[in-house]
Design brief:
Rossmann fold; homodimer; about 325 residues; alpha/beta; four-stranded parallel β-sheet
C-alpha cells in the first residue's frame, strides 16, 4: 500500500449522485427514527438514520456494494479480497454473493468464531492469519499476487467512500435541511463520505465526527494535520478502534468541522437509552454519536441534527444464554 | 366484578372508527417492519406492526387512553384505578398524566421495583398489596368505595378493547388486505379488539391468537366454550400469564378462527431472531407471534400475514450491568 500525502479527492456531487442511483436497487432505504424523549434530552430535533437496519446490519454494505458494482468483468471473475473481522467483511461477502464475485476475507485467527461464521455464511472464503499488521498485509498481498484478486479496502478506497456517502445523502432527502450531521469515526470512510455528501448540498451544515475518548486518533489527527495512529485502544466501540486511512483523512482534514469524543460511560448510557427507550438494537459504535447529544456537548440546542446509527451487530449470545438457562 | 355469560358485544365498525379518530392526536402511528429474511423463513409475506414503538413501549397505551378519553368530567376529576404490574400500569399512568386524571395502580408487593418505579415515574400512585387475587380485588374495591375512583380494567373493558382494536385497523390501512392477522393472547383485549377490527373490514381474513404452550388457557377455552383459568403458568412471556376476561372471550369465542401455541424454546428463538436480525427490541410476549411463523405451523405459505409486535419492555439491567462491569 503506498502512502500518499494529501491525495486529490476524486469524489464530487456527481459521483455521489451516481452512487445513489447505482445502489438504489441493492440497498435498503433505511428509515429515520425520531423520539420525543430524545429531543427533550438533547434539547434539539434529532433525526436518526437507521443503518442498523441496512443489509448485513450496517452502512458498510453501501460502500462494499458500490465498489463491486464498478469492477470490470475480468476483475469480477477473478474476485476480491479484504481484511476485516467486522461489518465490512460481512458486507463484502454479501455483495459478492449477490453479484457472483468470489470474496476472500483475511481475518486474524483471534477473530470471534461467530464473526468468522457470519462472513462464511454469505459464501466468502476466510483466510486466517496471525493477529499482526505484518501478517495481515502479507496475507492480502499473497492473495493479490497469486490469484489476481482486487483489494476492496474497508475505508481507504474512493468507491467505498462514495458508497458510504449515500447514507447522509438519503437522510437529507428524507428529512430536509439540517444544521448538523453527526457520524462515528473509525477508519474514516463514513465520516469522509458524509462530509462530501453534506457539504456538496449544504456547505453551512456542520459535519461532526464522534469517537471514543479512548480512541481519539481522529481528534488528534485533525489537530496536528497528519494521521496520528490509534495504537490498540480499549473501547467498547469495537468498530472505532482503527486508525484513519489517508484517503478519508484527505477529506476529513478539509471538510469536517469538528471531532467530538465520548467517554465509555457515556457510550454505555447512550446504548442503553437507544435499546430501552427507542427499542433499537444498535452496536456501541452507533451509540457513540448519541452520547454527546444526550450530554448536550455539541452546543446545538434548538437545532435540527441528523445522526447516523451505523450498525446493529452486537453479540447477544451471553444475554440469550442466560435467558435459555432460566426458561428452557 | 359480576360474571356475565356471553355478554353482548357493544363494539362494531363505527365504534372502532371513532376510537381511531379519538386516539389519533395521542398515539404514535407505529411503523410496519418487513424483512426478506423473515419472509424466507416464514414462506410468506409478513408485516410486523411495531407496537413496541408505541408510547410507553406497548399497544396498551391505545386502550388506556381510549378509556380515559371517554370518562365524564366528574369521573376524570375523581380519578381511576387499575391493577397491573405490567404495561397497562404504565399506559394508564401516562394517559392519566396527559389528561390530568389521577391514577392509582394496585400492584402486588412482589412486583419488580423497576416496574413500580416506571409507573410512579409517570405520576401514578402505587398501592401495594399481597400477591393474591383476593388482596388485589379488596384493594381495588377499597379505592373505588372510599375515593369514588373508576376502574379501568387491563382487558375486561369495552373501551379498552376498542382502543386495542385500532392497532390492527391501522395495520390494514398501512399495508392493505391481509390473509391473516396474528396477535398474542393473554387477557384477550388485543385479540378481541383485533378480531373486531379485522372481521368488520374483511370477514374472510383469518384472525389467529398465539399463546405460550405453558399458558394455553385460550386454546382450552376456545375448545370447551367457556373460560378455562390459566393457573400460574411459568413462561418467559410474562405478559401472557393472565386468564381470559369474559368480555374479550365473548368476542374471541365468536370471531377468532384459531389459537396457536408456542413452546418456550420457539419463543426464545423468535426473540433472538427479532433482536439479532431485525434489530428490534421486543418483549417475549411479542416474540410469541413470530414463533409459529418461523416454525411454519400456520399453513399460510405464500400468504400475506400481519402480526402485532405487542411491546418492547424487557429488563435489560443484567445485560448492561455485564457491559458496565467489562468496560467501565
Amino acid at each position: 500500500m503506498s502512502i500518499e500525502t494529501s491525495p486529490a479527492v476524486p469524489i464530487g456531487e456527481s459521483q455521489i449522485r451516481e452512487a445513489v442511483e447505482r445502489l438504489a436497487p441493492w440497498v435498503h432505504l433505511t428509515p429515520v427514527a425520531t423520539s420525543r424523549t430524545l429531543d427533550e434530552r438533547a434539547g434539539a430535533s434529532v433525526f436518526l438514520k437507521c443503518e442498523n437496519l441496512q443489509r448485513v446490519g450496517a452502512f458498510k454494505f453501501r460502500g462494499a456494494m458500490n465498489a463491486l458494482l464498478q469492477l470490470d468483468d475480468a476483475s469480477k471473475a477473478a474476485g476480491v479480497v479484504t481484511h476485516s473481522s467486522g461489518n465490512h467483511a460481512q458486507a463484502l461477502a454479501l455483495a459478492g454473493k449477490l453479484l457472483g464475485v468470489p470474496v476472500t476475507v483475511v481475518m486474524p485467527d483471534t477473530a470471534p468464531p461467530i464473526k468468522q461464521a457470519a462472513t462464511a455464511g454469505y459464501g466468502a472464503t476466510i483466510r486466517l492469519c496471525e493477529p499482526t499488521l505484518a501478517a495481515r498485509e502479507a496475507a492480502v498481498a499473497d492473495e493479490i499476487a497469486r490469484k489476481g484478486l482486487t483489494l476492496v479496502h474497508p475505508f481507504n478506497d474512493w468507491n467505498v467512500i462514495a458508497g458510504q456517502a449515500t447514507a447522509a445523502w438519503e437522510l437529507l432527502d428524507q428529512v430536509g435541511p439540517l444544521d448538523a450531521v453527526v457520524v462515528p469515526v473509525g477508519g474514516g470512510g463514513l465520516l469522509a463520505g458524509t462530509a462530501l455528501a453534506v457539504k456538496a448540498r449544504s456547505p453551512e451544515t456542520l459535519v461532526i465526527g464522534v469517537e471514543p475518548e479512548r480512541a481519539d486518533d481522529a481528534r488528534r489527527s485533525l489537530a496536528s494535520g497528519r494521521i496520528e495512529p490509534s495504537g490498540d485502544p480499549q473501547t467498547i466501540a469495537d468498530g472505532l478502534r482503527t486508525s484513519l486511512g489517508e484517503r478519508p483523512f484527505a477529506v476529513i482534514s478539509r471538510q469536517v468541522d469538528r471531532i467530538e469524543t465520548a467517554s465509555e460511560a457515556a457510550i454505555v448510557d447512550a446504548l442503553r437509552f437507544l435499546w430501552e427507550r427507542l427499542k433499537l438494537v444498535v452496536e456501541p459504535s452507533s451509540a457513540v454519536v448519541v452520547a454527546p447529544l444526550l450530554e448536550r456537548k455539541l452546543d446545538l440546542e434548538g437545532r435540527r441534527i441528523g445522526a447516523v446509527l451505523s450498525g446493529g451487530n452486537v453479540d447477544l449470545g451471553p444475554f440469550f444464554d442466560a435467558l435459555a438457562a432460566r426458561w428452557l
